[in-house]
Amino acid sequence: MHRMRPRPTRHRVTRSVLIRFAALILVLALIGGLIATTVATRTTEASAAQRLYAASMHDAQGQTQALSQWRGRYLVVNFWATWCVPCVKEMPELDRLQRQYAGHNVTIVGVGIESEEPVHQFRDRLGLELTLLAGGYGALSLARGFGDDQGVLPYTVMLSTKGEVLHVRAGALLPGQMQAWLAALP
User: What single string gives the DSSP state of each residue in 12-50?
Assistant: First the structure.
């Protein structure tokens, strides 16, 4: 006698199951991409901070200043130029804030993308006390490390005492913006 074998059971995959599976794969890929982007950004910022702290530049008096001297402090670096109208406009406010927060473990440094003489003349003309450094056009590569891919000026970066990027601003600071950053520090 001939026995009939049972037919294998076929699982029918419905269209809605396929759509749900594809959506799950897409969500997992997006989450993976976000995680990878976050890790890459933090690595890039850490590398930019290391390059910044490794740099030395002349100040407005012609003395060499190592940026590593401000490691362990909250460091605000403002990349600027004497011919940049928004840069010139915000300098007196940065100078005032440097004096106000000097005793709070905060240093504000202006990194000019010019040579010493224009930086010196600019400081004297405005009567500024904050540290202004002459980084030349090479300083733009430091700003680029913090995300200034377009060479925007002014470009301001605030680092924590551990060298972590706390704030970045491309273009002129908004009224009260730097004050708010500094007031929020512990």
Answer: PPPHHHHHHHHHHHHHHHHHHHHHHHHHHHHHHHHHHHH
Superfamily of domain 51-183 in the CATH hierarchy: Glutaredoxin (3.40.30.10)
Residue ranges per structural domain of the chain: 51-183
Beta bridge partners, 131, equal 109
- The DSSP bridge partners found for residue 57 are 65
Phi first, then psi, for residue 38 (nearest 5°) are -60, -45
Question: What would you report as the CA-atom Rg of the chain, rounded to the nearest whole angstrom?
Answer: 26
Q: Among 99, 100, 86, 56, which Cα is nearest to 156's?
A: 86
| Order of strands across the sheet that contains 106-112 | 64-66, 56-59, 131-134, 106-112, 74-80, 155-159, 165-170
* Cα–Cα distance, 47 to 37 (Å, whole number): 15
pLDDT in tens, 117-174: 999 999 999 999 999 999 999 999 999 999 999 999 999 999 999 999 999 999 999 9
Question: In Å, how far are 32, 80, 96, 140 from 155, measured between CA atoms?
Answer: 31, 7, 18, 10
